[in-house]
Design goal:
The two termini are 30 Å apart. The chain contains 12 helices and 16 strands. The strands form 4 sheets. The chain has a 6-stranded mixed β-sheet with strand order 1-15-14-16-12-13, sandwiched between helices. Strands 8-7-11-9-10 form a 5-stranded mixed β-sheet, with helices on one face. Strands 3-2-6 form a 3-stranded antiparallel β-sheet. It is rod-shaped. Strand 9 and strand 10 form a beta hairpin.
């Protein structure tokens, strides 16, 4: 949740408290009058049902490459830029092809494109190359050499790609700069060239920064589920950042045997996994109708969605095994009857952006329920 959303949330809750007439004074008893507080105006309420889970799981996650992306790849042409080194061969004219001798590489003796976008070539002088394709440079050389050589046969290639780069940073095996070459460079190619993302990387949300704008891409959907709509053809100057998964966690509170913070991991956990890894529900004090998942919203008028699972019937735990958790979720198992959920949500809403610190507020919630 963003800082602005959190601020809006606190203001709304403060207003609610004032309207409800809560009084705070040293040594006084807190007068809870939140039974009628307008919490419904702040959150959307969704019971966890088979229908809800079926709607989430509709469709095939594997998305093939689109026609537009395929056309973009097929139309790709490298354009020469300053810093590139060109290898030029004029057949039957070795004095033009490799004047430095055969012991030196093409990158060493080739024609470097200067900062003004041109390079020098014998007989014809300066040749403009910046922004041109290899075929266009070859045609220009052939046309101008024809004044000195009968029917010149010219071949041009790039011996060193130096002008166009993309930048990879963050949780990858080897952060580096990658050159853009005559072969199209996609996001998958770039990640593969640095040895894939680290185990501690957040595969669900990597960032592509291009021309001052940021795109959020799921490397997990691309690599794990074959969603090719997540792939991109990289362009010069792109910055690809793979963030850490340190903040990919959920907070578990209330009547569980081991409340605290649980890292999600890239494979994600279900609600059942979270409850199990928290030591299970404390059956002595928990209310079976009151398992809440509070999920904050960054957009819209509502501040959060509250998902509620009733496990009065143990078979309902099968729904928990199909409910996928998201980062920053708060799971709360209450002792309060479901009719008192307004009070529970009033206390929990400010915590949905603080999964690393909610464990410290557990005692307060328990005090409220006692």
């Amino acid at each position: 949740m963003t800082h602005s959303t959190s601020t809006k949330l606190l203001i709304a809750l403060a207003t609610t408290a004032l309207l409800a007439g809560c009084s705070f004074a040293p040594g006084s008893h807190m007068d809870y009058q939140t039974e009628t507080a307008p919490i419904d105006d702040l959150v959307d309420i969704e019971p966890i049902t088979p229908g809800l889970l079926a709607a989430w799981q509709e469709g095939d996650p594997a998305v093939p490459i689109s026609d537009e992306f395929q056309a973009e790849l097929e139309a790709y042409e490298y354009r020469v830029g300053p810093g590139d080194v060109l290898s030029i061969i004029v057949y039957d004219h070795p004095e033009l092809t490799n004047p430095g001798g055969t012991e030196r590489s093409a990158a060493e003796v080739g024609n470097r494109v200067q900062a003004d976008g041109t390079f020098y070539y014998p007989y014809i002088g300066r040749v403009s190359a910046e922004g041109k394709t290899i075929d266009e440079v070859r045609s220009e050389l052939t046309r101008r050499l024809a004044a000195y050589i009968t029917e010149p046969q010219v071949e041009v290639s790039v011996a060193a790609f130096n002008s166009k780069k993309v930048y990879l940073s963050g949780e990858v095996s080897e952060p580096k700069t990658l050159p853009i070459t005559s072969v199209p460079l996609t996001l998958v190619d770039a990640i593969s060239q640095v040895g894939s993302a680290n185990p501690g990387a957040n595969w669900h949300s990597i960032f592509l920064n291009r021309n001052g704008q940021q795109q959020r891409i799921s490397l997990y959907e691309l690599m794990r589920n074959g969603d090719m709509s997540q792939n991109r053809l990289l362009q010069p100057g792109d910055i690809l950042h793979v963030p850490s998964a340190e903040n990919q966690a959920v907070a578990v509170m209330g009547q569980v045997n081991g409340p605290g913070r649980l890292p999600l991991g890239n494979e994600r956990m279900s609600l059942m996994d979270v409850i199990a890894q928290s030591g299970g529900i404390d059956e002595r004090s928990a209310d079976a109708s009151g398992i809440f998942v509070i999920r904050g919203k960054e957009q819209g008028d509502k501040l959060a969605t509250v998902y509620q699972l009733d496990v009065s019937n143990a078979a309902s735990f099968t729904l928990a095994s199909r409910f996928t958790m998201q980062p920053q979720d708060v799971v709360y198992v209450t002792t309060a009857p479901i009719a008192r959920w307004n009070r529970v949500i009033s206390l929990l809403l400010p915590s949905i952006s603080l999964p690393g610190t909610t464990a410290g507020s557990i005692d307060d919630v328990r005090d409220f329920n006692d």
